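Listing S7. Sequence submitted for prediction.
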Amino acid sequence: MALADTFVRQVKHTGKPTGDKHTDGGGMYLLVKAGGKYWRMDYTHADKRKTLALGVYPTVSLAKARQRRDKARELLADGIDPSTAKKEDKQAKADAAVNTFKAVALTWHTMKAKGDTSSTTLKKRLAHFETHVFPAIGNRPVNAIKPAEILALLQAVADKGTAYTAGRLRALCGQVFCFAIQTGLAENDPTVSMRGAIEKPAVKHRPALTTRREFGEFVRDLRDTTRAEPLTRLCARFGLLTWTRPGELRHTLEETLEQVAILAERKPTTAIVDKGYRGVEIEGVRILRSGQKRGITRTLKAMIHRRSAIEPAIGHMKMDGRLGRWAAIRSRVRWAMRCMR
């Protein structure tokens, strides 16, 4: 006989140690104990008798308990154990709560940090994530994010006039989703369908300086501008005097040691630099300057001499390759270097 809401609400425990069972049909019954009322369902799967918990009354009403019973019977009809399906669903929800996009992205970022990616690139990536991505989808399960969410994120960035950044974010998010698929945390990459969704910024080419007058105006503008940092202006002027590549101009000892550690698979402990080195001290690395007297042993002196012997060879290479224009502009370079100190 089917149960009624009034009966379920009013029924009391009779004191029976194992509780009182009141059946509702289809294997479901209400188990009344001193501690409360519980919905249960008895069923047989693979020739084994089992019991499935459907909830606690009144949190789970009679109607809700019947819906859960019917769903369990459908699983049984398909040859699926309802108890196993319940455990898997519970585990999936727990995994979704842990495997958020932010958690997966940080794991991917940590993995990349162990490779040959430069520290500057790593900092920029993390800043992009923290500024644009994490506030929008950081707490979402990585396997539940839809293309529409990615589009809204990218469009919000592009609307601020940074379409290039939006394209970069799409690529970064795609790498995170690819990592999630490889590790079994996601099944698809929603950024794939975003290709072409954001309009690419129009590239504005700067005209070349082809006359002395144009070049002179550029140099004067560079000298008089107030929109650039002093160090930036000095570096630009130094580049004009020496024709040094930007990458070489901003190259630092710390970056050099980082590259050496990657190539040699061990961190350098000693660095020999020129007299004019004005860089900061680096933790764990002893910096020796050419011509240094204090604290120099015979072994260290020999190391410095071996390093200094390289200079004449470089000089001959410059002359043989007609690269000796440095001497013609050395006075101006010295002036620029003094400005940069």
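Caption to Listing S7: primary sequence and predicted structure tokens for the chain studied. Residues 309-341 have pLDDT under 50 and may be disordered. The chain is about 50% helix and 10% strand.
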